[in-house]
Amino acid sequence: MKDERLAVLIDADNVPYSNIKEMLEEVAKNGTPTIKRIYADWTKPTVSGWKNVLLEHAITPIQQYSYTTGKNSSDSALIIDAMDILYSGKVDGFCIVSSDSDFTRLAIRLREAGMKVFGIGEKKTPLPFITACDKFVYIEILKSTVNSTEEITTKSKGKPKAESNPFNKIDVKLISLLTKSVESLADESGWTFLGDLGNFILKKKADFDPRNYGFQKLLPLIKATNKFVIDERVAGNNNIRHIYLKIK
Fold first, then answer.
1. What's the CA gap between 81 and 83, in Å, rounded?
2. What is the structure's pLDDT at 165?
3. 3-class DSSP state of 211
């Protein structure tokens, strides 16, 4: 399978720097970040926190002065660079790290050109930008993953473990999304391949992620709903297990 080359473009004004390591690890799940740039007016004290992490993660800072008060000129610089990179033909996809809806049209344009577009931003990110991406991941998920690791370490030292705090609980909307998706993909006997299900749901809901509900993977989330029959089938000589499910 080809490892996709990704251009990672970060809007420093609209995302926190504290979880940059986890953000880049998330990007690496989707491809190789061959271009990493971050945009800001670096003369402003509000982005000073970013300066300490740029060298560590080999991110190229792009200086963009604010020409007028109240306007974010970094957005324009990022968009222009994205189009230049698109026409250079050096990447297979883009990761836009921002919580700003101003990049909605950019994401749509990149996808029209056949690019994969991944978004990373905070929970406050407007819906238009989220839906314009092929996949969108919330930074708060990455923070909770870090917290879970810290909790395990704390527990090993004999201190009480804090409760996890997923964004959402398993509710009627989630059950409906899973059920309708399984129905759409089911074969004549009603079975759906789990691998196809995850990709299909992302096409319907770009910000769907089992971690939003406190689960690291899709299968444990599906099992927790108690609405589906699970069947593990061994395929080939390597005893590879394929997961199928159908509605109870």
1. 5
2. 57
3. helix
pLDDT over 90 at 125, yes or no:
yes
Residue 101, both tokens: 């809806």
At which residue do the structure tokens 């990373």 appear?
Answer: 120
Is residue 194 within 8 A of residue 219, CB to CB? The reply is yes
pLDDT of residue 150: 43
- Nearest Cα to Cα of residue 65 among 45, 82, 46, 40: 40
pTM: 0.84
CA separation, residue 229 to residues 105, 191, 248 (Å): 41, 9, 6
Tokens at residue 211, please? Answer: 């971690």
Residue bearing tokens 């996949």? 135
Burial class (CB in 10 A: 0-12, 13-18, 19+), 207: buried
Amino acid 215 reads F
